[in-house]
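Lecture 7 notes: from sequence to structure.
We start with the chain below.
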Amino acid sequence: MEEQTRNQVGRALGKIPSGGSVLTARHGERCTGMLISWVQQASFEPPAITVAVRHGRPIEELIQASGHFVLNLIGEERGPMFKHFSRGFGPDEPAFHGLAIREIPQGIVLEECLAHLACRVIGSIDAGDHRVYVGEVVDGGLQVDGKPYVHLRSNGFRY
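Predicted structure tokens for the same chain:
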């Protein structure tokens, strides 16, 4: 793709709204969480969502081994969750230290987030430098009242 076209495509991709969420997964005694922005509802019946995870992230191994994940939606006051999860966590680092959490069969619910959706993986596909997981929503709910964080990027080729 020529540079001028790439710049225009990047600007156009950046206009696709995204949000801010924390994706969590666990398998056995291991668990982790990460910031994620590429999320979309995929189905009404059964209710399903898609999440895109960059290849090589530690959470991939846990999602693949457990077949589950939890999407924790961040509210408009994104500061605390962004600050906590922005640096990322290694495979065996304590990702939830200092946070109010609740463990459920599909993963970890962050009590300070706006809402959570617990999912069973029903499919996945490689999409370039990310893997897209399709999750059937099997549990979920609101933790606090409020609006979700929504973000537009200036360039669709970077977060």
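Points to note: The chain has one domain: 17-151. The radius of gyration is 16 Å.
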